Amino acid sequence: MLPDSPHARTVLHRRAVRLACETEQARQAPRGDLFLAVRLGAREHYGIPYRWLDEIVRPRGLTPVPGTPPFVAGVMARRGQLLAVLDLTRLLQIETSEADEETRLVMVSAAGYSVGLRVAEVIGNDRYRPESLGPILPGAAAGTENWISGIHAGQLSMLDLEALLGDPRIRIEEHT
Questions:
Q1: Residues 74-106 pLDDT 10s
Q2: Quick one: fold of 33-170?
Q3: Sign of the alpha-carbon torsion through 70, 164, 36, 115
Q4: 3-state DSSP: the chain helix, strand, coil percent, rounded to 5?
Q5: Could you say which DSSP state residue 68 is in?
Q6: Fewest CB within 10 angstroms: 53, 89, 122, 168, which?
Q7: Which of 175, 170, 2 is nearest to 72 (CA)?
């Protein structure tokens, strides 16, 4: 219940106006895009922009699929669908570390596909501006440089999941 006194109403009105102004300023200020920071292998850090992120889950019910490339970790059921799970460490040809209890599956949707990405660890999240990403460092595995949109803060490779999941080299199609 709101106070009935004219003074209290005036105070509340001033607060509401001030908050509205602060909210409008915050909305107009360029804050950048959110991304999820993950670790692959022993020490490689990558970013996954939130626009492709669905959820983060523990790797339960992952079933290996015989005859698939090494970067396919397996398949899993999720909300009534069977989804492929890709091992980013193998896909990006990163030196692997010992099995990690922090392993997570980052469920993403891009390029018309929904898949899980196995990562060694979820580190956290932050903001970035796509136009401020630095150039890709030399030494990326051959053919994977198109999957990285740039380097954030000189230490984290920002993934381009549209390019990665849209790449015909990672599709497995059965031909009859």
A1: 999 988 889 999 999 999 988 876 666 678 999
A2: OB fold (Dihydrolipoamide Acetyltransferase, E2P) (2.40.50)
A3: negative
A4: 25, 40, 35
A5: S
A6: 168
A7: 170
